[in-house]
Amino acid sequence: MENQTQSIPQNWARRFFTIWTGQAFSLFGSALVQFALIWWLTRESGSATVLAIATLVGMLPQILLGPFAGALADRWNRRIIMITADATITVFSLLLAYLFATDTVQIWHVYAIMAVRALGGAFHYPAMSASTPLMVPQNQLTRVNGLNQTLQGINGLIAPPIGALLISLLPTQGILLIDVGTAMLAILPLFFISIPQPERHEDLGQKEKPSLMQDVREAVAYVGSWPGLVAIIFMGVFLNFLLVPTGSLLPLLVTKHFGKGAIELGLINSVEGFGIIAGGIALSIWGGFKKKIITSMIGIIVLGIGVMLIGLAPARLFIVAIIGSILLGVTIPLTNGPIGALLQSIIRPDMQGRVMSLLVSGATAISPLGLLIAGPLSDALGIQVWFWVAGIICVIIGIAGFFIPAIMNIENNKAGTPTPVPEPS
């Protein structure tokens, strides 16, 4: 496989999980800060527009700069990128803590810091994701991705209540300082543990180093030459288009359709979080089917059934929506984990940063479009409609995947390395 071009030492687990543990603490600190800042914006403004802008500010750096950040992650030292990204976020968090402490903070300050944090994430994600297959044996990648999904579930489950508790005990600058401390836990191991760099494939006839734009176009050509990878990326983007709006519509579904309140909304979110944790743990222990794509396709089918159950549940049977939410949570890791491991194992190491960033940027870019369509459609036809239509389409996509050779044989149908794309004259 592509990621086995460099040998992985026998003590890989100690080295990798030392870095992983530091990153886990940092992600938890970031989740606390995100909760605290959104709460502050809500309390200060009471404006849906302000919150919508905050969401957009968090998306734009990844949408606009993600592919270039990925290209740089393939060019530059990935360990330095991660240190710089974490350190930059830390410095600006300290600045924001100072503004809160001196009572001079304004809404635009929070927007600016959120944009910087998102920009740091746009660089950090491809560097860490692309480094993982060079540090972890291929047969362990699915388990590691299962742990990553478990971590996301834990953060989604416990960060909001802990954040709410901390807000009642500490000023906002205190929570920002907690994030600074957790960021240091992520940075310190990177000073002492090396991260392998991929061997870069260069055109022997090319005299000058390719430009950044050439790197991005080469990644697009690399993806385009691989039918299975193109199909997987389009599948991921389309699923994101369908599923992201369900999270935004869920509060309205709980209140308007089921006639429930905040406790029931918290319950349905919590059981999804428990499901994600359970699915992530199961994947990290089991590892999925030997052919990773089978695990993901089955996950998409069951995920679609879960979303359908939430939308089709009668108003008097809230328990059906709870069951659907549990199914949704459990199958998120079973869908995303094997796909992530598959891509890490088959994408050329010096393309990892660029290709993964293209995937994330595309999925992020489609989210606002899904929200724009889902809102008016739900107002016109009913909130449940988006859920059951999205669920049905997910089931169809998962079943169809088994009958698409390019997807089922993605590990074997890769094309040759594309010729580097020259600059336009």
- Overall domain count: 2
Query: Which class do the helix and strand fractions yield?
Result: mainly alpha
Total number of strands: 0
CATH homologous superfamily title of the largest domain: MFS general substrate transporter like domains
Radius of gyration: 22 Å
CATH class of the largest domain: Mainly Alpha
What is the CATH fold-level name of the largest domain? Growth Hormone, Chain: A
Low-confidence stretches: 1-5, 416-425
- How many strands, which pairing sense, and closed or not: the largest β-sheet? none
- Helix percent band: over 70%
Q: Give the CA-based shape.
A: globular
Distance between the termini: 37 Å
Give average pLDDT, whole number.
Answer: 83
3D architecture notes:
- Helices cover 79% and strands 0% of the residues.
- The chain has 425 residues and is an all-alpha fold.
- It folds into 2 domains: 12-192, Growth Hormone, Chain: A (Up-down Bundle); 212-408, MFS general substrate transporter like domains (Growth Hormone, Chain: A), CATH 1.20.1250.20.
- Helix 5 packs across helix 11 (318-346).
- The longest helix has 34 residues, at 12-45.
- The radius of gyration is 22 Å and the shape is globular.
